[in-house]
Amino acid sequence: MYLDRFEQAAALLKPQRVGVLRQLAEPGTCTQVAERLDQTPQWVYYHVKRLVDAGLVSRVDERRVHGIHEGVYQAKARTYWLSPQLVGRIGGPRTRDELSLGFLLDILEEVHTDVAALAETASLEAAPELPSIGLAGEIRVPPHLRKEFLAELKTTMQTLLTRYGGAEGDAFKLAVACYPNVPKEAP
């Protein structure tokens, strides 16, 4: 689920609600979730209610336990994405230099938004698997060859875009990101 409303993000971005939401990957009652989280059903219900109000959780069933109607809830999605537009651009426009980090961030925001729209369309219309490809890898380029590598990468991409950039056929977007690998710290 692509979250592009501030109210949804505000409801989700609380650690206790993320914990409740994870428990509701499969349908469950507040009592069941409370037992797993070592909390009270009232505490869980409070957070479930906020998640329901934000459209992140649905009441999928109801059951009667000791004369009381108890709701069965389930998360509406398996994953939740926060739109970069929730905060929006702060400050002036980024530089449009294709070798800048700002340009890369612009591309990533566009891909993020486009993929979320595709995922929403596919789930709403029960569309077959959408034709797409994702590639990721790491290459090592010695410092003295960086400029040559980037020029060759740009030429190769321009060749592909020119060869397949006609007016006929299905339109696809292509984004290539090349950036320094920042090593992750060991736990």
From TrEMBL:
CDD domains: HTH_ARSR. InterPro entries: ArsR-like_HTH, WH-like_DNA-bd_sf, WH_DNA-bd_sf. This is Helix-turn-helix protein. It comes from Prauserella shujinwangii.
